[in-house]
Design brief:
With 414 residues, the chain is an alpha/beta fold. Helices cover 36% and strands 21% of the residues.
């Protein structure tokens, strides 16, 4: 992470800087690509392309100057504005500036910086949670899928984030209401994830998503700071599903979040939510999609948990019909554990852009932990230390996530 920097300058310099940033040429600043940084400009975002970000400049008795930044194909474009910061759901950059004494910092060619006269402002990069909307739109257009991997504790979260970073893959962290309760509440989950993003220096897009949420659970996650939610209204009559989804569309729009809806219950059980594995009605899918949701989970014979030996497989006929009705809407495949690879790839070809995985990570974690204990390693030295006891399961989760990201095609797509 780029180190913090406090720049000291006379208040007059702040006024000059303020004027320059509002007027030409700094008001709409464009610079060369990252490999050619120059004086008087910003270097390009070293992380994801097309990532809107904020820059906050704070000065005593001067209020806050906000600049929205958009990065595209390695070029930077800054457009200043005044007033309340916009609710971008992407990476954020912060600058804190104290204008009390003239001071300059040498540019070493590594930092992202503004150079104004003899004063340079070094940017500190802080990656925040993102909406899942953009990453899924890109996945749909690129014919790959982004994995949603459910988290249950610190080990799960850390393993998934590190694997995503290593593979340069976008990722969605799923949290069921039951898992949220287990981790003492949604605010705890948000705090843990945000802390890890900073401490682990995660720079790939990460969405924190409520999985199979009730209407009330969705509202709690909005308040807690999630960046994405799923409202599972599949057990309601379609008209009630539509009305509740419509209300949530308005709410998430106000908070810069993404919203997933469901039509046709997914088979199996997910934290007490039981589905019979229905195939969704394509016309009902269109009704929900037209409300303005960002992604749609349509039942196509998929189930949560291990698939039975007599499972007939996914209904690609239903999936194709839903895709035809919903157009560019990213579709979601729940119950990703145990679906044959050829079916996964065909589902992606037919419009699936998000695939949920939970049970497979749980099974791999349990198997690795069981093996460690059965081999008596917990009785050797301090093998009982939970950091050692849980390490095999942690590595097993990483291996499972890596395998799935490679299968889904999201590696290198951050």
């Amino acid at each position: 992470m780029v180190p913090k920097a406090i720049i000291m300058a006379h208040s007059a310099i702040f006024r000059i800087f303020e004027i320059c940033m509002v007027s030409s040429p700094f008001g709409k600043l464009k610079t060369a690509p990252a490999e050619k940084p120059g004086r008087g400009g910003f270097r390009s975002n070293p992380f994801s392309a097309n990532s809107p970000v904020f820059v906050y400049i704070l000065a005593p008795q001067q209020g806050v100057v906000n600049f929205a930044r958009q990065v595209s194909a390695g070029w930077a474009s800054f457009q200043p504005f005044w007033g309340k910061p916009l609710a971008f759901s992407y990476q954020f950059w912060y600058i804190i500036v104290s204008f009390t004494k003239a001071y300059a910092i040498a540019h070493n060619g590594e930092h992202n910086a503004i150079v104004l006269g003899e004063t340079m402002i070094v940017l500190e990069v802080m990656v925040m949670l993102v909406s899942a909307k953009e990453m899924l739109q890109k996945a749909k257009a690129g014919h790959y899928a982004v994995g949603q991997f459910n988290i249950n504790n610190l080990e799960w979260t850390k393993a998934i984030l590190l694997t995503a970073q290593e593979l340069n893959s976008p990722v969605i962290l799923g949290v069921s209401e039951g898992a949220g309760k287990y981790m003492t509440g949604f605010k705890t989950v948000v705090g843990m994830v945000n802390g890890m993003l900073e401490e682990l220096k995660i720079t790939v897009p990460v969405a924190l998503h409520l999985d199979h949420g009730t209407y009330e659970g969705c509202l709690k996650c909005v308040e807690a700071g999630f960046s994405s939610i799923m409202f599972d209204g599949s057990h309601y009559p379609i008209d009630e599903n539509v009305e509740k989804t419509k209300e949530l569309v308005k709410i998430v729009a106000e908070h810069g979040m993404s919203l997933e809806a469901e039509v046709g219950s997914i088979g199996g059980e997910e934290d007490g939510v039981v589905g019979m594995g229905e195939c969704a009605d394509p016309d009902e899918c269109k009704r929900i999609a037209d409300l303005g949701v960002d992604m749609l989970a349509a039942g196509i014979g998929n189930i949560h948990g291990p698939y039975p030996a007599n499972w007939p497989g996914l209904s690609f006929e239903t999936l194709a019909a839903v895709q035809e009705k919903t157009g560019e809407m990213p579709l979601v495949l729940h119950g990703g554990t145990g679906i044959p690879e050829d079916m996964i790839k065909k589902a992606i070809d037919l419009g699936v852009s998000k695939i949920n995985v939970n049970t497979e990570c749980q099974l791999s974690f349990a198997a690795a932990t069981r093996k460690y204990i059965e081999e008596g390693k917990d009785k050797i030295g301090k093998g009982y230390d939970p950091r050692k006891l849980l390490a095999p399961g942690f590595e097993a989760i990483k291996a499972t996530v890596k395998e799935k990201m490679e299968l889904f095609g999201s590696v290198g797509k951050a």
